[in-house]
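Suppose you are handed only these lines of text.
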Amino acid sequence: MGSRIQVFLLVISVQILLVVAFTNPQDVAAISALNDAWQNTPPSWVGQDPCDNNWEGIQCTNSRVTAITLASMNLTGQLPGDIGSLSELLTLDLSYNLGLTGSLPVLIGKLTKLSNLLLVGCNFFGPIPNEIGSLQRLVMLALNSNRFTGNIPPTIGNLTNLYWLDLADNKLKGTIPVSSGTTPGLDMLVNTKHFHFGKNNLSGEIPSKLFSSNMSLIHLLLDSNQLSGNIPSTLGSMQNLEALRLDRNLLRGSIPSNLNNLVHVRELFLSNNQLSGSLPNLTGMATLTYMSISNNSFNGSDVTAWFSTLQSLTTLTTLMMENVGLQGEIPTTLFGLPQLQTLVLRNNKLNGTLDVGSSFNSQLQLIDLWNNSIDSFTYREDLKFELILGQNPFCTGASQNKYCIVEQYSPIYPTQTNNCMSTTCSSDKIASPKCVCEYPYTGTIVFRALSFSYLGDPNIYTSLTNSLMGSFQSLKLPVDSVSLGNLTTDSDNYFVLSVQIFPSGQDHFNRTGIYEIAFMFSNQTFKPDDKFGFGPYVFHAATPTYGNFEGSAGTNNKSSSTGIIIGAAVGGSVLLLLSLLAGIYAFRQKRRAEIADKQNNPFASWDPSKSDGDVPQLKGARNFTFEELRKYTNNFSEANSIGSGGYGKVYRGTLPTGQLVAVKRAQHGSMQGGIEFKSEIELLSRVHHKNIVSLVGFCFEQDEQMLVYEYIPNGTLRESLLGKSGIRLDWMRRLRIAVGSARGLQYLHELANPTIIHRDVKTNNILLDERLNAKVADFGLSKSKAIGDSEKDHITTQVKGTMGYMDPEYYMTNQLTEKSDVYSFGVVMLELITARQPIEKGKYIVREVKQKMDKTKVGYNLHDVLDTAILGTTLGGLEKFVDLAMRCVEESGAQRPTMGEVVNEIENIMRIAGLNPNAESATTSANFDGISRGYSHPYSDESLFVYSGAFPPSKLEPQ
Ligand SMILES: *[C@@H]1O[C@H](CO)[C@@H](O)[C@H](O)[C@H]1NC(C)=O
Ligand SMILES: *[C@@H]1O[C@H](CO)[C@@H](O)[C@H](O)[C@H]1NC(C)=O
Ligand SMILES: *[C@@H]1O[C@H](CO)[C@@H](O)[C@H](O)[C@H]1NC(C)=O
Ligand SMILES: *[C@@H]1O[C@H](CO)[C@@H](O)[C@H](O)[C@H]1NC(C)=O
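From them, the structure of the protein bound to 2-acetamido-2-deoxy-beta-D-glucopyranose can be written out as follows.
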């Protein structure tokens, strides 16, 4: 009896041990130090194992802490150096905790795996430690809106994977560091797309070395500093630039003429400097929308001559040219510009007669000509916009004229109509747009370079609300509704919009809901709909209200670090066992690290700059010369261009054998390193399956990286579903496409060697060949930077994928598995039956279908959401198809089927629909549309439905 009890006790203690030993002791100690250093850590931080899944804000993988996301948690205290022990940490988000203060510990440099360091809107001060340059894997570095002082550490130049660098709104001083000798500098950040350094005390000249054509910056914001000297002419080589803010500095000299090369700039702010010379030559800026060059010391320029050279006149919404020495008579055509919203020409020397003409854009809100020399005005009574003419000779004799009275425009910004006036809420609750009293999560969105100035268009707010709701839904965040309002401009001329986000299901968010919403903003995962040109933004959370943490404030039950460690020590023998397990654990970790190291650099011996280096190990793919591909694509002619994106362009080409190919040519800035490119083509060339687009070859020379694929004539599944390709996709065809693409993915997951996770499954990446076979494209692209990456489609942090298709579990944990592809495939299945995009008008397809679905009704009551193109036809197996899609989009990856199971199930569904899953697809011949009538015989002989182009269509007509 006694021995039995002993055995029983031993079993228990071993179980305790397993739990304890499972979290790495070093991580346990570090988290415990954070818990001691901070007030208001989540009340769930109790017990001995931070990785037991219940600790809010902590994520673990293989018993190591990999993410700490505690944005907007009302944390107070300092960041202890112990953070440096979390050596597997990938994400650290402590944004919007105004109580976090003190300096950044230098030990932060030990977090060598960190990819996202987000400390937006805290109260950190002191210098940014040089050790930040050791975080080689950083992709997002956001330290904006703190009180950091000192210089920008030159070591940031070491962070070659950086995508986003935001240091704005601090007290940083000194010059912008550039490399020299062995000292690194920001000019080395050739992959970074965002430099946001506005609102600091940076001084000295903008170093000309900072810019080169190798850089890929799209947003360069240096406004509100004390930068002096000339604008360096190297700035003109930044071909990708879209937003440029140099305003509110001490810049002098004339504007370099090659600024004109910045053909993609949409927002240009040079105002409030001491720039001189003639007005800038902007004839090359074809897509300029917002231009502000007010308050500089330019020489007088003739207004007509200057405007007559601008080709962007058709895109300009806003022209701010106060006090720039303009003279002469304003041409009437200027007021009729098709997009014009605001024209400010105050304090110039414009003269003659003013004739505003009669063709105005309905969004025109202001023409401000205060203090010029205009002596007559072709009077019009009925102007719908504000016209300011005071301090012109014309007004001397006509001071009662209504256009002579107002001195400054004070815009009246629209307020959102609140339908809930009669809803009175108790205490600090607020009525949601649905008139429910709740505690919202609130904050402001600050737009740093809007491309428009007319704010009266309600579509702007609808669009923002919709894209916010769509993002919340696709990330499965518990948000019920969003309310926007109180639009203002702040002292730096940024537009500020307040946001209230209301919880669903209960009247307040729990902690998880809050820090996940906050992370969506701090990590810039949320991107407003690009249609309006919102430009770069930053979110600031308001101080949390008590309601956000209701029921848990003050109940923070701390467990000290000694508690954790002593808790493990149940007895001497147990301790021995513990150290044994820890040893095994450490050994396993070491092995894993060694294996990972090898995998990281299998081609160390290949030097792409030497032509005699190891040639890539290719199966079947050939190495084309640049000359060859130039010939096959007819000198990359526009006529052969079949697509484009952030990576560059795709051209159709014809090989001498007559084979058609698609040549994907990377543009500068999207190129990968030689090693990455080589490993990518090696991977691609190993993949051979009829449902996978195959690689024909590549070209790597002369600053060129090109991938040559087989040409797939019928375009993407998305185009066909949208009816753009002229191909009618009946139910049978959709099932075949579903099974084909599922088989392609199954191959990547189960049979390819090494196995491949696609990471960006979507209808845009499923192509249709001439027989409507589905072919999966664009898979297995390298991690940090991919040749197929397009800025607009992708979250360009280390989480790769497209909003709407992205597995929320992957997004939250960074842990990529095959099941993430299964999730995206589930979304593709829903698209196949609805033809809707995953996020359309703010509605997320997965949620829509779930809400509409009623399993007790025929067809699950989904007729409202089904694609009208298949509505009314017999949809054999539809219910099972929907069931399967729903299993694919289960919250938890473990609950989702594997791709192999998905293939089997779709094959079953095809049999129910009367199709032979193993037969070939139909051709696109129009005659074959007649086949669709065959569905109504689900149990008829399968052979009747063999969709092979070999049969004359008439034979396939059902009797
Ligand atoms: C930055 O890189 C240089 C050389 O690339 C290296 O010598 C230096 O140690 C690095 N600095 C940090 C802080 O990692
Ligand atoms: C402006 O730049 C364009 C293109 O570089 C050039 O053709 C034109 O002559 C320039 N105009 C002036 C006024 O300098
Ligand atoms: C307007 O100003 C220009 C340049 O100062 C001058 O040449 C022109 O004669 C003026 N026109 C009128 C109508 O005063
Ligand atoms: C935030 O923290 C402060 C200080 O620790 C505390 O007084 C306040 O009640 C907290 N607010 C909430 C909403 O928990």
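What can we learn from it? Residues 430-548 form a domain with the Alpha-Beta Plaits fold (CATH 3.30.70.1440). Residues 39-40, 74, 76, 544-546, 548-549, 553 surround 2-acetamido-2-deoxy-beta-D-glucopyranose (ligand 4) (CB under 6 Å).
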